Every structure is written in structure tokens, then in C-alpha cells.
Amino acid sequence: MVHHKPIVIGVAGGSGSGKTSVSQAILSHFPNHSIMMLEHDSYYKDQSDLPFEERLKTNYDHPFAFDTDLLIDHLNKLLRYESVSKPVYDYVAHTRSCDIEIQEPKEVIILEGILILADKRLRDLMDIKVFVDTDDDIRIIRRIKRDIEERGRTLDSVIDQYLRIVKPMYHQFIEPTKRYADVVVPEGGKNHVAIDLINTKISTILGNFP
Ligand SMILES: Nc1ncnc2c1ncn2[C@@H]1O[C@H](COP(=O)(O)OP(=O)(O)O)[C@@H](O)[C@H]1O
Ligand SMILES: O=c1ccn([C@@H]2O[C@H](COP(=O)(O)O)[C@@H](O)[C@H]2O)c(=O)[nH]1
């Protein structure tokens, strides 16, 4: 029988910083535990009422792009050990897909996203706050590769979006949230020492569960 509220680990950082890699490294360290990922990206606002050309103009790196109220509602349900219907985001179509995913509650929740530390309501629900800190040049190189291979973009579109939006928004909204982090992880998923420290802390909290 479960007595304690689930543990929430927030993993923030710029696009391409290695948030997903760090989160995966935590997930794979606890194969026998009940652990899940919750991505702020799944809660990008639905834009199906806008034509595709209009969706291309959206600023996806601004807090207004997300339905954070819905994320908080879902997180609170998961914290009460209730399941939720997660939206599924389609990066190629730039809108919510028709699918939903049923997410069962778990003992450990990894909450991941570029702007999760920018919202005090989310910060207040986290037990451990992590910021993955990777230089701009490394992040743009990773993003070019990923967005062309996985998100249906061209080189020119990635460069244009990066210079016009992603970079200025990072410095205005994302980088300043580093000050809220308990742990700053340089260089993402390959930082084994930082990941071990985070995993040890999670084990300690799990060990203290009644
Ligand atoms: N330490 C690393 N060294 C090399 N490549 C990495 C490293 N961490 C992540 N990557 C690669 O960079 C890309 C972005 O990493 P990801 O973890 O998805 O970042 P984010 O979730 O912050 O956008 C992925 O293609 C991933 O394979
Ligand atoms: O329709 C969309 C939605 C998001 N983006 C970009 O995605 C990144 C955040 O994802 P990461 O996995 O953290 O890189 C954000 O910087 C948005 O610019 C998009 O291009 N289109």
C-alpha cells in the first residue's frame, strides 16, 4: 500500500541541452520502480484551429505557448495517485495530435521541459530541481541534427527559428531559471557524477517512504 505522495524531479534546460538524456539516465537507473516521464512539450496548446502557415509563426519558446494549467491539473491528479489522459504533441504538424495517452500514476515523476522552472506553481510541486546547462553552440548543433532527422525541418528553417526566437527566448526566459535549480548539470546525459548524485537522492527519498 502506498502512503506517500509521488516524488517529482524537475529537469529543465535549453532545447538540445540533454534534458531527455538525463531523464532517460534516471529512468533506467530505477528499472524495478514505478517511475514515469511527464513532458511539458505534451502540453503545447492545441493549434488545430489555425492553418499550418500560421502555426509556423508561433513562438514555441515563450511560456504562453503552453497549457501549463492543464499540466498542473494533471500533475496534481498524479500526485493523488489518479491516472490522467495526456495529450500527444505532433512537432511536424505543430499542434496536438488526435491521440491521447492514458498515464497511470507512479511513485516517481520526472517532469521535463524548457520552461518548467519558470512557473512557481510547478517549482513548488518539485522535490528535486535540475537544470541541464549546455553551451549555445553545442545545443544548436544537436538541434539542427534532431530537427532535420526527427521533426521534419530544413537546415534554413532551424537556423532562422533559432536566431529569431529560440536563442533570445532562452536568454530571456530559460537561462534565468537556473537560479532555482538544486543541481546544475553541465553537458547533459554524459555527466555520470551529477546523474549518480540525483539518483542517490531519489533512492534516499524512496528509502524513507513508509
Ligand atoms: N552528452 C551528449 N553528447 C552527445 N550528444 C548528446 C548528448 N546528450 C544529448 N545528445 C544528443 O543531442 C540531442 C538532444 O538531446 P536531448 O537529450 O534530446 O535534449 P533536450 O531534451 O534537452 O532537447 C539528441 O539527439 C541526443 O542524442
Ligand atoms: O511545434 C513546435 C513545438 C516546439 N518546438 C520547439 O521545441 C523546443 C522544445 O523541445 P526540446 O525537446 O526541449 O528541444 C522549443 O525550443 C521549440 O522551439 C517547435 O519548433 N515547434
From TrEMBL:
This protein's UniProt keywords: ATP-binding, Cytoplasm, Kinase, Nucleotide-binding, Transferase
Record's catalysed reaction(s): cytidine + ATP = CMP + ADP + H(+); uridine + ATP = UMP + ADP + H(+)
Gene3D superfamilies, per database record: P-loop containing nucleotide triphosphate hydrolases
Subcellular location(s) per record: Cytoplasm
InterPro entries xref list: P-loop_NTPase, PRK/URK, Uridine_kinase, Uridine_kinase-like
Main location class: cytoplasm
Annotated GO biological process: CTP salvage; UMP salvage
Pathway recorded for this protein: Pyrimidine metabolism; UMP biosynthesis via salvage pathway; UMP from uridine: step 1/1; Pyrimidine metabolism; CTP biosynthesis via salvage pathway; CTP from cytidine: step 1/3
GO molecular function: ATP binding; cytidine kinase activity; uridine kinase activity
Domain of life: Bacteria
GO CC terms, sorted: cytoplasm
EC number, UniProt record: 2.7.1.48
Binding site for ATP: 13-20
Pfam annotation, one family: PRK
Residue stretches making up the Phosphoribulokinase/uridine kinase domain: 8-193
Family that this chain belongs to: Belongs to the uridine kinase family.
Protein name (record): Uridine kinase
